[in-house]
Design brief:
The complex is a heterodimer of chains A (180) and B (141). In chain A, α4 packs across α8. Chain A is built from nine helices and no strands. Chain A has a domain of 93 residues: RNA polymerase sigma factor, region 2, helix turn helix motif (Rna Polymerase Sigma Factor, Chain: A), CATH 1.10.1740. Chain A is mostly helical. The termini of chain A are far apart. Among the domains of chain B are: 30 residues, no CATH class; 62 residues, no CATH class. The chains are: A mainly alpha (180), B mainly alpha (141). Chains A and B meet through α2, α3, α5, α6 and α9 of A and α1, α2 and α3 of B.
Chain lengths: 180, 141
């Protein structure tokens, strides 16, 4: 989206313009869904998190500093929601990486309905056992492709802590893959 | 199978290139917007003030307000009594230990700032010495 148009929409949303906020929702909801899905590994939970993210964004629109990146701000809200959810939900997975990984890597053009199932299983199994923070840092840096300073702005964590969490997360996952 | 290093990189690369599928319907967005609109906005003035204080003019104004408050505090708690002076045989004037202690105040924390207390006592000492010198000069004249 054109930056001046984005600023225009943000300013209008702050003045209670519902249509402007709807345009922002339509622009960013898929991006937020991507993060939430990769974090929660569940479509329904991810959709709920998207809704909650935009409700919080709407309520706190007055506090948004226009000089900040809107995308980073939304990521930050969504990340904290996902962290809270991961900390409260203690789900046990019993999927085996052994069968999932070769199948996932081997698919050239996966069918649409298989994409989410594959992703859910692969990300879920790969990141199972990581702490919520390690998972968040891994998803933001390695799967969403954010640079470390941006991850720091999103999570509020120190870059050194991000790097150490990332290192530990990758080491843990490599050990897991090593047993395949 | 590839080495574990390559495998992790290959997996993350593949996941990155495969965004999860979701096509939100118009009805879904409508429903979400309804929920959003029904939520009250947080219109407390405090966050706005905090945002403003982060700007350079806010910082300057904050410092100015701080200085004014500090000056006001100094004026309010400055003791009105003058210390007693004792002239020594050499003509030097010293402040008795008793008068160096500041008067009691109804505010227990009024003299909690050690820096303020020391600077005030130094100021008294300097003034007393200067007065004594002036008196001596006057007497000699």
């Amino acid at each position: 989206m054109d930056p001046s148009r984005l600023t225009e929409l943000i300013e209008a949303s702050r003045k209670n313009d519902h249509n402007a906020f709807r345009a922002l929702v339509e622009q960013f909801q898929k991006m937020i869904f991507g993060l939430c899905f990769r974090m929660l590994c569940n479509e329904e939970d991810a959709r709920d998190a998207v809704q909650e993210t935009f409700i919080r964004a709407w309520m706190k629109m007055d506090q948004f500093d226009i000089k900040r990146d809107f995308r980073t701000w939304l990521y930050s809200i969504a990340s904290h929601l996902c962290l809270d959810q991961l900390k409260s939900a203690k789900t046990q997975r019993t999927m085996s990486l052994e069968n999932i990984v070769p199948e996932f890597l081997g698919r050239e053009h996966p069918e649409q309905d298989l994409i989410n199932r594959d992703l859910r299983e692969v990300i879920g199994s790969l990141t199972e056992g990581l702490s919520a923070k390690q998972k968040l840092v891994f998803v933001l840096r390695n799967l969403e492709g954010l640079e470390v300073p941006e991850v720091s702005r999103v999570t509020g964590m120190n870059p050194a802590i991000i790097k150490s969490n990332l290192f530990l997360a990758r080491q843990f996952m490599r050990n897991k893959l090593n047993h395949l | 199978m590839k080495s574990d290093h390559d495998l992790l990189d290959a997996l993350t690369q593949k996941i990155r290139e495969t965004p999860p599928r979701w096509e939100p319907s118009e009805a879904w967005t409508d429903q979400m917007m309804e929920r959003i609109i029904s939520c009250p906005r947080e219109n407390h003035p405090l966050p706005r003030i905090l945002l403003w204080l982060r700007t350079s003019s806010g910082i300057a104004a904050g410092l100015l307000i701080g200085m004014l408050l500090w000056n006001h505090a100094l004026e309010e708690y400055r003791p009105e009594t003058t210390p007693e002076m004792t002239e020594t045989t050499t003509g030097a004037v010293i402040l008795s230990q008793e008068t160096l202690s500041l008067p009691a105040t109804s505010h227990p924390g009024a003299y909690s700032s050690e820096g303020f207390l020391n600077s005030y006592l130094n100021h008294l000492r300097r003034n007393t010495q200067k007065n004594a010198q002036n008196r001596q000069r006057y007497e000699n004249f």
